[in-house]
Amino acid sequence: MKRFLIFVSAHLFLFLLVIAYQAQADHEEWTIDRYETLSYARVSGEVVHGDSLNFFIGSRENCETVYNNFTFVTYEKPGDIYQLEGKNIPIKINGEDFTAKVQAVNPFLIGFRVTFSLGEFPVKEYIHRLNNFYKKENKYEIEIVDGIDFKAAKYFDITTNNWKLDKLVPSLLEANKLCETINHLDS
To answer: What is the mean pLDDT of residues 74-82?
Structure first.
């Protein structure tokens, strides 16, 4: 009987642990902060939590420009991964073809973190355009795909991630307000 109670208790504990983890995984968590002359808003990926979607707003541009980038963590270790820096890599955003420029490849845990740029845009227009796109599509998914002389699976063990953008507008507006305070804080 004692073994049975231990068995049931252990399974109940594991069940509750899984439920707690799922509740945390479904939570859309944004980080809003500043670094030197930039403010930023960041949200983690749903497939790989270490992947992030980032929005940087520069005080040097009067907080009117947003730089959008994202990261993918990979545990693939091809010897030529650093040659990706500066190259445009084919991606799909919600199934539509785009390219993203590789900004950096950095060691991360037992693999690499690759940072991709989606470009720079007028902040208020971009926030609202991206928010409308997200509401229409009801998802924001980036997939790294094969291209000419590029095989995604050679460099990335997981080639797709998605992000919840339900709090995009308030998060970026908060980052924009923080950007506007940077020059005041530094003087």
So the answer is: 96
CB 165 within 8 A of CB 138: no
Dist. CA 58–CA 65, nearest whole Å: 7
Q: Which helix (H) or strand (E) holds 144?
A: strand 141-144
pLDDT tens digit sequence for 3-46: 544 443 434 343 333 343 443 444 479 999 999 999 999 999 99
CA distance 29 to 25: 9
Both ends of the chain: CA-CA distance in Å? 71
d(Cα 68, Cα 57) in Å, to the nearest integer? Answer: 9
Structure tokens at 40: 């930023």
**Residue 179 CB coordination number (10 Å):** 26
Q: Residue 146: which of 101, 92, 93, 94 has the closest Cα?
A: 92
- Of 62, 6, 9, give the one whose Cα is nearest residue 38: 62
Give the pLDDT confidence of 123-173 residue by residue, as tens digits. Answer: 999 999 999 999 999 999 999 999 999 999 999 999 999 999 999 999 999
* Alpha carbon distance 48, 129 (integer Å): 25
Query: Tokens in use for 70?
Result: 């994202």
Euclidean distance between CA atoms 111 and 136, whole angstroms: 35
